[in-house]
Design goal:
Length: 277
């Protein structure tokens, strides 16, 4: 059971069991953030995204509806070009949909102006990418404290929090190393710490294991799984790897810009094992 207060309304809600995907409709008719909005960190409604014009027009997303529960690790799978990265950039407010809506904790991202959306990204969304995107001239600790310092936090406090995050991802001993002195797996753990240091409502990870060997990739995903178990972190993870997806609570399959199906991890793993047998 969770108890919380959103916009001054106290609410008590029963969290649905993990793996459930028959979402009740969200009622925003009274201008009140509903119980569902407290349970669902992210929701999309009829999300569409087209690029280009005329013959060059590509419909990357063609009406995507899904919701991410609080404290859930959701994996998104699908062939190359199926719209996974496009979806993640809309979920994170990095790009705007051609049609449809994204709700972050019940708030319609379309209702925000550019400055508010930038602030929302900095304060409430953590991103992890395939290319780790660490700043090469900064140490691990400076990379992690940067988002806090950019947000106006005093340097000492930002460094203290960065050190705690590096400890959480098992990188304390390497905190004074620059990225080039770290292995790929270590750089990705620093990137995870940097994404988490702002205490985001949701962590969005686009193929975070794509540049890592299989064993290192699994360790990074195990770390994400631990963050869900121990801290209740909500995570959306794009992956091509069925064994990575098997660590998720639920898997959404995209095909040609649409949600094709949803699975529990056991189903994905068993069809993968059948395919490799
Ligand atoms: N900025 C853009 N301009 C034009 N077309 C784009 C743009 N971004 C994506 N697309 C097209 O939209 C479709 C979906 O792309 P997207 O990058 O979301 O796929 P993906 O599922 O992430 O693929 P991959 O597994 O290769 O990363 C593709 O056909 C792609 O070419
Ligand atoms: Mg992609």
């Amino acid at each position: 059971m969770i108890e919380g207060s959103v916009c001054g309304f106290t609410m008590i809600a029963l969290l649905p069991a993990r793996g459930r995907w028959d979402y009740p409709p969200v009622d925003r008719s009274q201008g009140v953030v509903s119980i569902e909005a407290a349970v669902y960190v992210l929701e999309t409604r009829g999300l569409r995204k087209a690029f280009g014009e005329g013959h060059a027009r590509v419909e990357a997303l063609r009406g995507v509806d899904f919701a991410v529960q609080r404290g859930e690790l959701l994996a998104i799978m699908g062939r190359s070009g199926s719209g996974k990265s496009t979806l993640l950039s809309l979920l994170g407010g990095m790009d705007l949909p051609s049609d449809g809506q994204v709700f972050l904790e019940g708030e319609d991202l379309a209702s925000l102006d550019d400055d508010q959306r930038t602030l929302m990204r900095r304060q409430r969304i953590g991103f992890v990418f395939q290319q780790f995107n660490l700043l090469p001239i900064l140490t691990a600790e400076e990379n992690v404290s940067l988002p806090l310092e950019l947000g106006g936090m005093a340097a000492g406090e930002a460094r203290r929090r960065a050190a705690a995050m590096l400890d959480l991802v098992g990188m304390s001993e390497r905190r004074d190393h620059v990225p080039s002195a770290l292995s790929g797996g270590e750089q990705q753990r620093v990137a995870v710490a940097r994404a988490l240091v702002i205490e985001p409502a949701i962590l969005l990870a686009d193929e975070p294991t794509g540049n890592l060997d299989t064993a290192t990739g699994r360790r990074v995903v195990s770390l994400l799984r631990e963050l869900v178990e121990k801290r209740g972190q909500t995570i959306v993870l794009v992956t091509h790897d069925p064994e990575v997806a098997a660590l998720a609570d639920r898997i959404v399959h995209l095909r040609d810009g649409l949600v094709e199906s949803e699975d529990l991890p056991a189903a994905v793993l068993s069809s993968h094992l059948e395919g490799t047998a």
